[in-house]
Amino acid sequence: xxxxxxxxxxxxxxxxxxxxxxxxxxxxxxxxxxxxxxxxxxxxxxxxxxxxxxxxxxxxxxxxxxxxxxxxxxxxxxxxxxxxxxxxxxxxxxxxxxxxxxxxxxxxxxxxxxxxxxxxxxxxxxxxxxxxxxxxxxxxxxxxxxxxxxxxxxxxxxxxxxxxxxxxxxxxxxxxxxxxxxxxxxxxxxxxxxxxxxxxxxxxxxxxxxxxxxxxxxxxxxxxxxxxxxxxxxxxxxxxxxxxxxxxxxxxxxxxxxxxxxxxxxxxxxxxxxxxxxxxxxxxxxxxxxxxxxxxxxxxxxxxxxxxxxxxxxxxxxxxxxxxxxxxxxxxxxxxxxxxxxxxxxxxxxxxx
Amino acid sequence: xxxxxxxxxxxxxxxxxxxxxxxxxxxxxxxxxxxxxxxxxxxxxxxxxxxxxxxxxxxxxxxxxxxxxxxxxxxxxxxxxxxxxxxxxxxxxxxxxxxxxxxxxxxxxxxxxxxxxxxxxxxxxxxxxxxxxxxxxxxxxxxxxxxxxxxxxxxxxxxxxxxxxxxxxxxxxxxxxxxxxxxxxxxxxxxxxxxxxxxxxxxxxxxxxxxxxxxxxxxxxxxxxxxxxxxxxxxxxxxxxxxxxxxxxxxxxxxxxxxxxxxxxxxxxxxxxxxxxxxxxxxxxxxxxxxxxxxxxxxxxxxxxxxxxxxxxxxxxxxxxxxxxxxxxxxxxxxxxxxxxxxxxxxxxxxxx
Amino acid sequence: xxxxxxxxxxxxxxxxxxxxxxxxxxxxxxxxxxxxxxxxxxxxxxxxxxxxxxxxxxxxxxxxxxxxxxxxxxxxxxxxxxxxxxxxxxxxxxxxxxxxxxxxxxxxxxxxxxxxxxxxxxxxxxxxxxxxxxxxxxxxxxxxxxxxxxxxxxxxxxxxxxxxxxxxxxxxxxxxxxxxxxxxxxxxxxxxxxxxxxxxxxxxxxxxxxxxxxxxxxxxxxxxxxxxxxxxxxxxxxxxxxxxxxxxxxxxxxxxxxxxxxxxxxxxxxxxxxxxxxxxxxxxxxxxxxxxxxxxxxxxxxxxxxxxxxxxxxxxxxxxxxxxxxxxxxxxxxxxxxxxxxxxxxxxxxxxx
Amino acid sequence: xxxxxxxxxxxxxxxxxxxxxxxxxxxxxxxxxxxxxxxxxxxxxxxxxxxxxxxxxxxxxxxxxxxxxxxxxxxxxxxxxxxxxxxxxxxxxxxxxxxxxxxxxxxxxxxxxxxxxxxxxxxxxxxxxxxxxxxxxxxxxxxxxxxxxxxxxxxxxxxxxxxxxxxxxxxxxxxxxxxxxxxxxxxxxxxxxxxxxxxxxxxxxxxxxxxxxxxxxxxxxxxxxxxxxxxxxxxxxxxxxxxxxxxxxxxxxxxxxxxxxxxxxxxxxxxxxxxxxxxxxxxxxxxxxxxxxxxxxxxxxxxxxxxxxxxxxxxxxxxxxxxxxxxxxxxxxxxxxxxxxxxxxxxxxxxxx
Lengths: 353, 353, 353, 353
What we know:
The structure is a homotetramer. By secondary structure, chain A is an alpha+beta fold. Chain A has one domain: Jelly Rolls (Sandwich), CATH 2.60.120.10. In chain A, the strands form four sheets. In chain A, strands 2, 15, 16, 18, 19, 20 and 21 form a seven-stranded antiparallel β-sheet that branches. The first copy, chain A, is built from six helices and 22 strands. Residues about 1-10 of chain A have low confidence and may be disordered. Chains in contact: A-B, A-D, B-C, C-D. At the A-D interface, α1, β1, β2, α2 and β3 of A face α1, β1, β2, α2 and β3 of D. β15 (about 250-255) of chain C pairs antiparallel with β13 of chain D, so a sheet runs across the interface.
């Protein structure tokens, strides 16, 4: 570090002294707090904006990418990421969350890799695909939530004859802002195996509520259950709705052995809103990305209204009020950074109605 | 407290002085440690002994009690408790656990009460019975585990036309040794209601592995899920067995929202042993009570061998080795005081083969 | 197990049938619940009674035992245990806690052993003694709390020329009722070493509030700090009292690395009551044993009043109201089974004024 | 959202089709993953660089700012922030941590405010200053660590006649990247009060290792103890060093009631290196900022060597190896984002020698 040239004599005019001072500060790799007016705003400044992406467009472009763009080592994945218009062209849905649509055509394989950013898949269309997670083959079908947690090996296989499209979410923006991204490619040769409709992970941890292996102690930071099946989620939503007085039902996906969030950076939840019902207007510190899995609805996010149909995705920025009113019985998958905010003591939330 | 008469003059013979000293100690409500030879044994002294009760006898006597003994306020329950021959006639299966067979005849009702000792029911025979747990009606069928946790109101109803027999377990001996027993009778008038095969508790917490209400925060010491159904348990055992190399499968019943034991004083588990398979010989500090739900087996407990058929119950004392070898595919329900030993830092366990 | 002789023909008179039934039940090692009237009392039946032991007597008898009774392998310790008059001659202060006065004369050594029951020492009189805890030499002085946790090796040395008398507390009654007692003798040859006034444990964990080793991860069930010095306790009480509006101050001794109770079965606390001040009347499920370390007071326990002077010890049974009024500034050491009750979900407490 | 103009006819040349596709993707607020080559680097890309700021310069500029820049509402604080040369002119020491020197002249007051970013102060020079933390007056002296946790009101007073200079650290970059910054000004009128050398917080929680209020339950996310005094820290380092075989001693500052980090986003520690001793070379995922409090040393951070004297500050980027060799007995204060990485399952660390 160069020594600062700080030599302003006392006889110098005040403004010149101040200017010279600022120059010395800059040369010393320092910055005065008092000139950084926006650095502590009264509320989060909301660079990210409320935004929705239509499934019609997402699907059309994903299919077109399937025709035009091969999958191979280097690209690894055929993914179109949701780029929030408020985030200056970065490929992020919110400041902490990556959202995207991924397309895997018939006969294609996305090769093995792993990375510290955690990822999840929520399947929208297609069949016959399976994902190998740390050696465990996990089948994928619409409505399923499949986890590929931080630093777990994963590769996707489509041995069938129809394409699959799924929603991808990662904590990549968060991991990047923490300088915490590590990445590693797996072997190029593919694993070929017959896939059971039930993975090892599901056999051991997914048989039913409150039933866990007698001795196995889970110590990793994420859920040992890698797949949450739509059949179970659908039944759980229906059961909860039976006792609901609001026409809405909300579930959290958790590690069945500890009840904690499925991954330490991403809360996953499913929300059912009956036709005509409306959720309360609420907001929280932290952001989320949503997928309209079934039905149609109008979401009011901040000042804007978004008309949502099956497959539509939307982003809710930090501290931005949201309410959803269903026009037809609607189901939403949601992932958020809530566990991060809770772990760091930064969570705050409120209802506005 | 009377002042001790401790007046031995120095000239008195030594033995007389000692005698006088002991008398003074006793009068002062004190006791010398050094004369209490057995108070710190090298290993738990095992007053409780390994013991098995045959279902044939249990059932015969339970049915006979149904003919002879009415249920009414005061008695409240028609229960025959397992009385370990090593425990000096106390009605306890082990020093911490009460085990029993309960009989509820057609048309009978066991009236509402609550107590701080926690209880559980594992159903062996019958149908059509339901238990009201803190206002939530819980249906009961063979193989089901039903919880009535500490201080929860509970009453049993048999509106059907066949009797039901179930295994009762309580932490009553433990609660008694802690001077921690509180008891309260409920209202005498019975609740009558149509019972759903699925309780509220199950609708909210029992829909599937890793699926919990989005907002509901469980703060009580015990599981919010009161019923674990045999259909789920059976499937979970089968799934686990598929990947087992030993021909055995073991499950733990846990609170689905936190993964902790269903109740803080009683661990519950289910164990499947395929015909011809044999569990390892192990022992642990703390005791357990078992029910043979299906099949037949030979259990070696300490030095003794017990031939077990469906419905047979047995007690395993602290630090006593146990191994089970199935003669036909066999399923066992087990409840133990393991969470107590773990919470108090007293758990130790070892394999002996 | 013999098969029960249950042969009552239907023509037999009812009472005979019942009698025959009861006999068959007994022969089958069973007991009917409905005849055990007292087994579920409305409140803990309080076999243990409120009781106090006077220091004058304790000291006199302890000193006399020092003259009459040698310490050697087998007896191991010269201990007079508080025997609650309600507990049928058992050497226990309460159903879960052993309390005692221990006497170690000049030049004496109490040889090494270890046991699963946890123990603590609160020093009342004397100087120059040290206790070796798992190889760590811990000096002892009046007002110090010294831990010898479950299964830790410990031996006591008095190389000085005055006797030491201390209060011993163990969870022995609890450990016995759980069949959880293991015991092992150490080597007979004594360790001789110069003792630092500060043990290794204190050097690493006892330097100040909120200061812990950077990397060391404590995994055992008990505190890594074995000694809590009177100097610190006294200052902490004085500091707390400065801001107290009631003239009372209460501290808990905790594991400095986790904030949990020093041992999982025994809560330790210190209570200062200024002359003329009076604590609120409260009761809790679970029992405690107290030592009057300084000053004098009147304790109202249940219906009884106890006049307490320095060194006097007293037992408070489960669910028994207690209040203390100081006649001179008074300090009390207390140990209770509260962590057990909390861990097992059995804690309940209330104020009565 | 405008509908994408995606109309490429099949007869169009391939490259034109691809170009048209990319244009449609961009218009749909999407981005292809496969063109974002650097988004998943093999290791954190280390925008931030190892860097040191000399105390001589920091102090000179801070004093000069004292002459030139008033403190008033709006600016609120006279702070020069460490601006890591790798971070494109942002006023941050690392991607997660703000480091700075703050200057408060005689008679000055920095007015009350609060913000969700957590802050801490480590005092380097001066005397007589106190900080009001949520109404609790906390005195400040060299070597003291003072916390002003997330959303706590704080203001700084210098009623004395010498300036104070301290090191400021905040999790501001992290809070900003999460869109989690809230800020509120307090009342303009100043609080004037006599300051006790010991704050309420210290009276209740700071009296000694393992001594906490009997009843008070801490539920907030941060330590209830706001000040860690140099006298205690110094003694703890000396005690630890006595048993050290490496000539180094490291302490962690923790919440005395739970043993967790003082604040959920910032680990605080103190490190003593004896003259001639050298720490092992290690690296971890996540960054830290250090202050040389006493002595002198050479730090090797990555490939660079930094010669450190009293007051010098330095930044260690994520995954960058560091080792410190003392030329004179040296003490270092360090704050890091380690609790964030641990909470999010992103922590990894290794020794390199």
